[in-house]
Hints:
42% of the residues lie in helices and 23% in strands. It is an alpha/beta fold. Strand 3 (162-174) and strand 4 form a beta hairpin. The chain is elongated.
Amino acid sequence: MAMDQSALLELLDALKGAGVDDRVRIAAQSMYQALIDAEAEGVIGAGFWERTEGRTAIRNVSRRRLLSTTAGDLELRIPKLRTGSFFPSLLERRRRIDQALFAVVMEAYLHGVSTRKVDDLVKALGADTGISKSEVSRICKDLDEEVGAFRDRSLADTTYLYVFLDATYCKARVNHRVVSQAIVVAIGVTADGRREVLGMDVGDSEDGAFWTAFCRGLKARGLGGVQLVISDAHSGLKHAIAAVLIGTSWQRCRVHYADVRIMPMSSAVLLCGRGFGLAWSA
Length: 282
């Protein structure tokens, strides 16, 4: 639905009297509102104060919706219907933040930014009302679903000839206490050299039982055809490889073997993960 002449002139007057930043916000708000009204008209089968034979519902005032965007806070009107319901496809229920800010919040969360600083960041990007701690948590719940889907995906469709297994330790908050947690990861390499993270897990320590359960999880997801496993010489890890990945060869990671005496373990883990094919000896 195109805006009529009077609406365009009103928008022009508003833009003339606004600063550069406000012009972007006003233009975005007008565009969103025009699209919402057009979609509502398509659902109802008639425009404002229009009577048609194909009309299926009647407008019953509207409710206000505040949408935070990088252009600023947009005050939108969502038409209410006397019968049935309508919600614009541009917006998402129970979410007052657009996808651009949504991505910023998740990225900040992944980098360990506090919720207070996330609020300051969102305000700096134009959302005057900021964002609450509970909303940050609600947004980041979607990350848990994405990570869960990634961790549980099938590995049966691809053959990984080489698999790197490694672990590092990070501080984490568990039951209101900051403790050291083991983070284990498996990285696969295909015959054409493509590398892919196959799985990851977090536990209290990288003992044999934890490694065995982790390797069994990879097998249950379809990991097969592995010819060589590269890792450090951790006894529990070697036992898990022999017990679960039966028939595969094992080789000690050269980065760990050569550099563990002269650099911190976390640095060796990082180099091993970056080196991949260069990390094992010939």
